[in-house]
Each structure stands twice: as structure tokens, then as C-alpha cells.
Design a protein that fits this description.
The protein has 169 residues and is an all-alpha fold. The chain has one domain (11-165): Protein of unknown function DUF1465 (Helicase, Ruva Protein, domain 3), CATH 1.10.8. Helix content is 67%, strand content 3%. The protein contains 6 helices and 2 strands; from the N terminus they run H-H-H-H-H-E-E-H. Strands 1-2 form a two-stranded antiparallel sheet. The longest helix is centred in the middle third of the chain and has 32 residues, at 51-82. It starts with 10 loop residues before the first helix and ends with a helix.
Amino acid sequence: MTETGSAIAIGPRIVAAGGFDALYREGMTLIEDVASYLDADGRADSRVLSREASFLYATESMRLTTRLMQLASWLLLQRAVNEGEITKENARSEKEKVKFSATPSERGGPGYEQLPEALRSYIDKGDRLFDRVMQFDTLERGKMAVVDAGTANGIADQLARLKAAFGRP
């Protein structure tokens, strides 16, 4: 709390402390790796698939590239904010236009196991990156992030304990 009694948003401070740089590097590396795979080994992998698996390969590779381009957009906007090229408000407005698709809950289904291991691995990495970006975005916006499904992060847990200790609802 500040002297005026208002809470200090720690999320933007964590974002500004350099956690973004690692996320950015990981995201851009993943994008390059996936592009290389789909352009070379992925083509060869897809040629030996059954007709049904080939259709699923095309669908999942399209979902993955779409998701990664959406993540790249988010990462580039955040980097522009961090470097002072655009304001947080402008970035927030642009980020609202980025609609993420193909959430992890929509993964799998018949034939998914027939996809090449490399593609499934890249899909998993993309989903994990998506989760981290969403947590980071929540922190950047100054909100409490959820670490695991339904489990509040350590800060929220500590705040709840303090409220309970001092009798505040």
C-alpha cells in the first residue's frame, strides 16, 4: 500500500523487470522453428500420412501457424510498449483486436496420435507459450494471474490470508 492507502500494482513491475525478454525470445524462436519444420521436414512427414491423418495435419498445422502469428503480434506489441515506441493504451487497443483461436481444450480427437511427433511437440509448445502469454498479459494489465486451472497464484493466496487474519471480507 502507498501512503494514500491505494494498492500498488505489481504486475507491470514484474513485466518491466525483464521477464518479457525471455518470453519474447522463446516465442520468436518457436515461430522460426515451426516455420522451418513445416517448410522442410514437415512436408516430408505429411507425405507419408494416411488421407485422414493428412487432412488433420493440414488442419493442425494451419491452427498452429495462426496461433503463432497471433502470439507474434502480441509479443511485438508488448516489445514496442517496453521500448517506448507506442503507449500502453495504443497497445491495449491493438491487443484487443487479436483474437486467439484453437485453444488447447480443442486439441486431440480421432487421429491426433497419428500426426508426426514433431508437429504434436510444436503444438504443445505453442499451447504452453499461449498460456504464458495470457498470464503475462494479465500481469501487464495489473490483474492477478491464475497459474494453474482454478488455483490462484501465490500473491493472491497471501492476500487472502492477510484479509482473513485481519478480519476483512
